[in-house]
Amino acid sequence: MNKKFTFAGIALIAAGVAGGYAISATTHQPYNSILQDDPRPLVQTSYTGSAVAAQPVDFEKAAGTAVPSVVHIRTVVKFKQANVQQRGQRGDNPFGMDDDMFQRFFGGEDGPRQFRRPDQKASGSGVIISEDGYIVTNNHVVDGATEVTVTLNDRKNYAAKVIGTDPNTDLALVKIDAKGLPVMPLGNSDETKLGQWVLAIGYPLNLDVTVTQGIISAKSRNIGINRQGSAPIEAFLQTDAAVNPGSSGGALVNTNGELVGINAAIASPTGSYAGYAYSIPSNLMKKVIGDIMKFGSVQRGYLGISMAPENLEDAQRKELGIGDNGNGVYVADTDPSGAAAAAGIKKGDAIIKVNDVAVTSSAQLSEQIARQKPGDKVSLTYVRGGKESVANVILKGKMGAMASQMAAAVEALGAELKPLSPEEARKLGIAGGLQVTDINDGVLDAQTNMKTGFVITKIGGIPVKNLDELKAALQKQNGNFQIEGTYPGSGNVYYYGINDFNK
């Protein structure tokens, strides 16, 4: 059976408590764990003193302090009633079948018929990151949700609002109207070590809060599971702490009770836990969620390179023009207008460090760059022809045009646009707008079924009548928004949803 990677939920509880109890140093009576009221640990744990490397680990304090900061998230995706149009008209065909066949099953000659798809319900987990109600979770937990409900550890329920999402890292930020919430302290995921004990905490399988324990078994793991974004980033912490569906968005915690990861996925042939779970490192989460809180969307810098596959054989190296330059990440090609090329990086170079942090895999390199934003200066150590060199790279935006982010935002749409004349707007009964005269490769082509001739009147609820207003409106969007407009002669208003829009 082929191994199947499935999105999971996070954390489960089965905490083991290590250690026994000893006779008090101040008494000569035999110790009795039933009768004595002041039991004392036989050994010190990591919470009671130093020199703990060789001592048993007590998970009790870490679990006790972390559990109140992990929440249960329930979502609903509501489907509205839709009409099936008369034969020859374009209906809402959710099954991808031929329109004529669809009409024979669901529509008649006499007019449109109505159908309703059932609401979908799901659940996951989240971690409180601020006292005033900000909660981090996975994008796939809240993606498409029309209702989000958060249940705290004390059983209180709150309606939640999705503040922002980043499908590329599978992270999302939601907010509830509450004060004085317990915040989980943030740990440094870079300092996690192979073999280190960790706890997974969440709400799997519709159970109450659950804790499981395991170790870090790998770092910077890329398993190819994230297909939500246009430029997915995977650099997971791998652990054998058991997680299951419903735990997604929960916490991976070290023995100090600090958050070191957001649980996101499992590797399983069945869809349930089978030995390996994957968490988004807390340092990457901090950057992504911090951007959403400060800017409304993720500010991501790009190197402008393509990376060669790892573990290449000699024949493959020769075919790609890559020499033996060490154990770094090989550059298979560069974007001539990209940041790396501008700094002198060439095809065949092996990047071995980013800001003095060693990188030996594409996942490690991607994670380090993903923590930066356009305009940041990054030091790249690379090997060329057996010689080690350093290049200072100033990262660019996705479109490679930092100097004109507004122009890049319009370019990202992938459309040719023409402002309506006052007479054209008057005929359509609108104040003005921009007509789509052509659609090329870009966001509109990838995410909508918009046709040429469509007139854009609003971006995210902001009226637009010319290119300058369009640019300004796009800059104000936080990644997910609606384009509103009309088709000449239709007399109707149409909406197109845009997700993960990177300016």
Average pLDDT works out at 79
Q: In terms of per-residue confidence, which ranges show pLDDT below 50 for 5 or more consecutive residues?
A: 1-55, 82-98, 399-405
- By secondary-structure content and strand pairing, the structural class works out as alpha+beta
In the CATH hierarchy, the architecture of the domain at 403-498 is: Roll
CATH superfamily of the domain at 403-498: PDZ domain
The spatial strand order of the largest sheet comes to 10-11-12-15-14-13
Work out the number of β strands. Answer: 27
**In percent, how much strand structure appears in the residues?**
25-35%
Shape: globular
Helix content: 10-25%
Radius of gyration: 27 Å
In CATH, what is the class of the domain at 403-498? Mainly Beta
| Multimeric organization | single chain
State the major sheet: 6 strands, antiparallel, barrel
How far the N terminus sits from the C terminus, by CA atoms, comes to 42 Å
Number of helices: 11
CATH topology of the domain at 403-498: Pdz3 Domain
What does this molecule look like?
With 503 residues, this protein is an alpha+beta fold. The protein is built from 11 helices and 27 strands. The strands form 5 sheets. It has a 6-stranded antiparallel beta barrel with strand order 10-11-12-15-14-13. A hairpin with a 2-residue loop joins strand 24 (455-459) and strand 25. Helix 8 (405-413) crosses helix 11 (467-475). The longest helix has 14 residues, at 282-295. 40% of the residues are buried.
Key words describing this protein structure:
503 residues; alpha+beta; Pdz3 Domain; six-stranded antiparallel barrel; six-stranded antiparallel beta barrel; 11 helices; 27 strands; disordered N terminus
